């Protein structure tokens, strides 16, 4: 039996998997739980969202984007391995930028292309409570987990490349007014697979018992659930049934 967390017993992986089998096990998680199948994304990729709904997505997703380098800095702080830290800090540079614009700046360019004010976006005042809760929960997960679990929570990048390519095509086709803001996705086409390969190799090397492999799988499942929860909030509030919370600061498309 696995360990108990929040009154739920985690299921242990029954046997130690070799590297290809572990990869396949993680792929099964992605097929079942990754947010590529969420109704909000399906509407987006079919061109069925309004400008206001797309603005809501860009705005709320910024909160997640802004927390990625914070998450990676926490993971960095958990390791005493110089080689690991040297490799992992690339992620922070990718998002914060160095000589050129990083992922956060590129996301702000997407927000401006969507017609949003930069300072309004970066203030984070208009974020949905459900999105804020899910993103903050991800930071908590990384903060209070082991290094192996924290690294494994990033394994959603195993599935990101295909979704990013699909999204770029959909945005260019259905939302041409976003054309000047797609640089973020272009960069992630190469960054995400590189990051995923490193994280998977680390997990495969250090998860050398069925119990540790179960922690890898559970961490990926929890990350998938947190990504899904963000879209749940967006879909409920802006698409169906479109029930915005009463807080005065929440983004309302008609006011944009």
UniProtKB/TrEMBL annotation:
Please provide, alphabetically and separated by semicolons, the GO molecular function terms listed in this UniProt record.
pyrroloquinoline-quinone synthase activity
Keyword Oxidoreductase appears in the UniProt entry: yes
Supply the SUPFAM superfamilies for this chain: Heme oxygenase-like
List keywords of the entry alphabetically.
Oxidoreductase, PQQ biosynthesis
Pathway info:
Cofactor biosynthesis; pyrroloquinoline quinone biosynthesis
UniProt-listed GO biological process terms: pyrroloquinoline quinone biosynthetic process
EC number, as in UniProt: 1.3.3.11
Pfam (any one): TENA_THI-4
At the top level, the lineage of the source is Bacteria
Q: What's its catalytic activity?
A: 6-(2-amino-2-carboxyethyl)-7,8-dioxo-1,2,3,4,7,8-hexahydroquinoline-2,4-dicarboxylate + 3 O2 = pyrroloquinoline quinone + 2 H2O2 + 2 H2O + H(+)
Top EC class of this enzyme: oxidoreductase
InterPro entries noted in UniProt: Haem_Oase-like_multi-hlx, PqqC, PqqC-like, Thiaminase-2/PQQC
Per the database record, which ranges form the Thiaminase-2/PQQC domain?
24-232
Protein family per UniProt: Belongs to the PqqC family.
Q: What does the UniProt record say this protein does?
A: Ring cyclization and eight-electron oxidation of 3a-(2-amino-2-carboxyethyl)-4,5-dioxo-4,5,6,7,8,9-hexahydroquinoline-7,9-dicarboxylic-acid to PQQ.
Task: Read off the PANTHER family from this record.
Answer: 4-AMINOBENZOATE SYNTHASE (PTHR40279:SF3), PQQC-LIKE PROTEIN (PTHR40279)
Q: What is this protein called?
A: Pyrroloquinoline-quinone synthase
- Organism this protein belongs to: Tunturiibacter empetritectus
User: What would be the name of the gene that encodes this protein?
Assistant: pqqC
């Amino acid at each position: 039996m696995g360990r108990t967390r929040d009154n739920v017993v985690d299921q242990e992986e029954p046997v130690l998997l070799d590297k290809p089998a572990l990869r396949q096990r993680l792929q099964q998680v992605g097929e079942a739980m990754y947010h590529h199948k969420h109704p909000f994304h399906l509407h987006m990729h079919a061109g069925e969202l309004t400008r206001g709904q797309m603005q809501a997505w860009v705005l709320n997703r910024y909160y997640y984007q802004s927390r990625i380098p914070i998450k990676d800095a926490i993971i960095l702080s958990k390791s005493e391995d110089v080689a690991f830290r040297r490799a992992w800090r690339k992620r922070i540079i990718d998002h914060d930028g160095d000589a050129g614009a990083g992922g956060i700046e590129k996301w702000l360019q997407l927000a401006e292309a969507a017609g949003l004010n930069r300072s309004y976006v970066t203030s984070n005042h208009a974020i949905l409570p459900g999105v804020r809760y899910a993103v903050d929960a991800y930071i908590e997960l990384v903060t209070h987990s082991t290094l192996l679990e924290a690294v494994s929570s990033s394994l959603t990048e195993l599935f990101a490349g295909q979704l990013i390519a699909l999204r770029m095509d959909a945005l260019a086709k259905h939302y041409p007014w976003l054309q000047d803001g797609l640089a973020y996705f272009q960069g992630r086409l190469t960054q995400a697979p590189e990051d995923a390969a490193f994280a998977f190799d680390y997990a495969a090397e250090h998860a050398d018992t069925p119990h540790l492999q179960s922690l890898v799988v559970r961490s990926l499942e929890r990350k998938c659930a947190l990504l899904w929860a963000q879209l749940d909030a967006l879909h409920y509030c802006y698409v169906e049934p479109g029930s915005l919370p009463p807080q005065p600061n929440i983004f309302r498309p008609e006011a944009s």
